[in-house]
């Protein structure tokens, strides 16, 4: 039994309660009332992405602990393990929320994405290894802030506004820097350190990168086409 599982369970319960109360905290506009669960779901996702620990601690950890750049397997500073466990709890909650409220053909991509993240982060939580690797992956959440804001603006029918246009530009820029570049760096690190990673963990990591990279390239093209090429 890993104490990290308690953090995962607590995180799941906290995000579940937040999801239930968000409709009162942030009432949906008339354009979003037909899809109330989605409105709550996006705001819950934004809350996870905007958590100070989720994005600000990852770069700071590497600045304060430069040895992590060379050892993403066994080296992790205090608090990093709990941070990854909190994210596992969130992704499980989001998986359950989509599974209960959305048809499978509409959500299978995100469900698949969450399954990969839960497995990879779950290994880090259970084994207390690869936590540094998971911290690098959490840099993606910096872009997720603007990705979720885009969905909120769309649901609020605020597409033709300067706010949406500005968010689209920032979203695309952070997508390249914090999502695509991060995945490329992780793939490179995994390849260069393939002799130092056990075969099973290397297989999981390689499969995860092989799945996530094409998915993110496709999403980037969709964003580019929707917000800039139309």
UniProtKB/TrEMBL annotation:
Q: Which PROSITE patterns match?
A: TLC
A GO term from the CC aspect: plasma membrane
Topology of this chain in the membrane? Multi-pass membrane protein
Please report a single Pfam family linked to this protein. Answer: TRAM_LAG1_CLN8
Arranged from A to Z, the UniProt key words for this protein are:
Membrane, Transmembrane, Transmembrane helix
Question: Any idea where the TLC domain is?
Answer: 34-230
Q: Which SMART domains match?
A: TLC (SM00724)
Q: Which InterPro entries match?
A: TLC-dom (IPR006634), TLCD (IPR050846)
Answer whether the UniProt record assigns the keyword Transmembrane helix to this protein: yes
Output the GO biological process annotations, alphabetical, semicolon-separated.
Answer: membrane assembly; phospholipid homeostasis; plasma membrane organization; regulation of membrane lipid distribution
The entry's localization annotation reads: Membrane
Membrane-spanning segments: 133-149, 169-188, 200-224
Q: Does the keyword Transmembrane helix apply?
A: yes
Its domain of life reads: Eukaryota
Task: Enumerate the PANTHER family for this protein.
Answer: CT120 PROTEIN (PTHR13439), TLC DOMAIN-CONTAINING PROTEIN 2 (PTHR13439:SF2)
In Swiss-Prot or TrEMBL terms, this protein is called: TLCD2 protein
Name the species this protein comes from: Pheucticus melanocephalus (Black-headed grosbeak)
Q: What is the lineage of its organism?
A: Eukaryota, Metazoa, Chordata, Craniata, Vertebrata
The gene that this protein is the product of is: Tlcd2
